[in-house]
Amino acid sequence: EVERDNWGARWARECVERRLLLVRRQLAAAPYMAGDRFTAADISVTYALNLGANHAGFVLSDAEQAYLARTTARGAYKRAFDRSHEGVAA
Predict the structure, then answer these.
(1) Count of CB atoms situated within 10 Å of the CB of 33
(2) Residue 2 pLDDT exceeds 90
(3) How far does the chain reach from its first CA to its final CA, in angstroms?
(4) Whole-angstrom Cα distance, residue 11 to residue 9?
(5) Where do the structural domains in the chain lie, given as residue ranges?
(6) What is the mean pLDDT of residues 30-47?
């Protein structure tokens, strides 16, 4: 708990929260980060949202949860995820 309250952790969390505002703004306008097209940006943002929700306690909105459902269901995301975890023990 002490580590979560240090200045570095606070700074990192504030940075992520500012970036999350950009993601929320984009999702209000389009289904993906580049508009109507799924791109590598979506793979990156999906990974970050999952990391924040699963390990940093970020609460995702309904729109963000729907975005994760869209992106993680795509074959391209699944392939990228699988490749990034090759050789990593569970």
Answers:
(1) 21
(2) no
(3) 26
(4) 5
(5) 3-84
(6) 93
